[in-house]
Amino acid sequence: MAVGRPRTFDEAEALDVAVEVFWRQGYEGTSITDLTTAMGMNKPSLYTVFGSKEKLFQRVVARYAERDMGYKTAALAEPTAAAVARTLLLENAKALTRKDRPAGCLSIQGGLSTSPDNASICAFLAASRLEGEQALADRFRTAVTDGDLPSDTNPAALARYIIAFTEGQAVHAAAGANRQQLEETAEIALRAFPGDTGPTSD
Q: Which residue from 20, 77, 97, 155 lies 20 to 30 Å from 35 (Cα-Cα)?
């Protein structure tokens, strides 16, 4: 008899469960048994539906970006570069410290302490983060062209600064920093951003 999806299988729900497992345990710390137990499916079904642990993880990262990082899209749509930075950093502080999610960031936690055998996972996560950094750099380039940022602004470096800061915030959140602490640090980071980034929002 062919092995397929469980009769009551919900792919989106299964991915949400896998997000939690990988987020808490990292890629290397998560076994197939951990996944099948949490997702309520057997190993043949998991491989039939998702292909492999690595392919499942790639789907998980995409699901995480859609479900937990929508604030980045909203930030890019802000009318000024300063508002982009403020929204991004403050919403990031919220996302990293949600009570209904593991602390920190899946794209950071998922690839920590990965062995050379799983180098492809580190490369995949780095490429995913770089994609977001490039989108931010493009937004800042537009701001320079529009006169919203000074003409001597380096959009790529400015985007790298913002992303590097959020990555550091994720590490602190995973270590126990709370939302208020992350917001206080974000306010300091925003002082270095060109232009008026405005007051702290509640």
A: 97
With bands split at pLDDT 50, 70 and 90, how would you rate the model's confidence at 200? very low
d(CA 124, CA 53): 14
Report which of residues 7 and 52 the model is more confident about.
Answer: 52
**Res 39: pLDDT:** 94
Per-residue pLDDT of 168-185, as tens digits, reads 999 999 999 999 999 999
- Cα–Cα distance measured from residue 100 to residue 35, given in angstroms and rounded to the nearest whole number: 19
Q: Provide DSSP, the chain.
A: ------TT--HHHHHHHHHHHHHHHTTTT--HHHHHHHHT--HHHHHHHH-SHHHHHHHHHHHHHHHH-HHHHHHHTSSSHHHHHHHHHHHHHHHHT-TTS-SS-HHHHTTTT--GGGHHHHHHHHHHHHHHHHHHHHHHHHHHHTTSS-TT--HHHHHHHHHHHHHHHHHHHHTT--HHHHHHHHHHHHHTSSS---PPP-
Structure tokens at 54: 């690595």
